[in-house]
Design a protein that fits this description.
Layout (H helix, E strand, L loop, with lengths): L7 H7 L13 H11 L12 E6 H18 L19 H16 L6 H9 L9 E8 L4 H20 L3 E5 L6 H8 L5 E10 L17 H4 L6
Helix pairs in contact: 1-6, 2-6, 3-7
């Protein structure tokens, strides 16, 4: 075992969505190991439906540049994801949780409520993968059913835990599904695949204030029932 490896419990407890990465490269062999470890995730009838496009270095920068150019040219309205990630009608307790993490994050960064220019600038950093040296895009074949979407979610979670176990950090990014048209052109993603999300992978910048964010989690008794114990 690598001396820097974390236990499963440590990897889970220290996993977070990092929004500022160091430029330190991550080699291809390490990324392949992470993806292969995560492929032990369960999937219905072991169909393993996940697909991942991985790009790094200058290629990652070129993909980000193409995204920004398209958004500047067309406007955000012309770039929308093919499916709904968030609820169409927000309600509690989800709305309060969404607002809390937003203002907790912006507070750490010194972004005040109503500063739309600063919040938009921060939102756009999704398309730079928050400066992560490695970017990933996850897709599924469009003819697959809901079970495969669940399988992919399990796989993505395993990717993040495997990366953390190896001393790396990640940020899963639903925002990248918005720019699927650009990603298709840049990465050769065919029309019969649905772009689900992206992810930045690398080493967290320990000095970035946004990386000080510690999110809250509800205790098990808030979402689970227990019987027969």
């Amino acid at each position: 075992m690598n001396r820097d490896s974390l236990s499963a419990e440590q990897a889970i407890l220290t996993r977070r969505s990092v929004r500022a990465f160091l430029p330190t490269p991550v080699d291809q062999a390490t990324v392949e190991k992470i993806l292969e470890l995560a492929s032990r995730s369960p999937s219905g009838s072991n169909i393993q439906p996940w697909k991942v496009r991985v790009f790094a270095g200058e290629r990652r920068l070129a993909v980000s540049a193409a995204i920004h150019a398209a958004l500047d040219r067309d406007g955000d309205e012309a770039h929308q994801r093919e499916w709904n990630y968030y609820p169409v009608n927000w309600r509690e307790p989800f709305l309060a949780r969404r607002r809390k993490i937003g203002w907790d994050l912006y507070g750490l960064m010194g972004i005040k409520k109503g500063d739309f220019e600063a919040t938009e600038k921060q939102r756009r950093r999704n398309y730079d993968f928050f400066d992560a040296p490695v970017g990933m895009i996850f897709t599924l074949d469009e003819d697959l059913e809901m079970g495969s979407w669940l399988d992919l979610g399990i796989y993505i979670g395993a990717v993040m835990i495997a990366a953390r176990g190896m001393g790396l950090d990640t940020c899963p990014q639903a925002a990248l599904a918005n720019v699927h048209l650009v990603l298709r052109e840049q990465l050769g993603i065919p029309p019969n695949e649905v772009v689900i999300c992206g992810m930045g992978l690398g080493h967290a910048d320990p000095d970035a204030p946004e990386n000080k964010l510690v999110t809250e989690r509800a205790p098990a008794r808030d979402f689970a029932t227990f019987d027969g114990f």
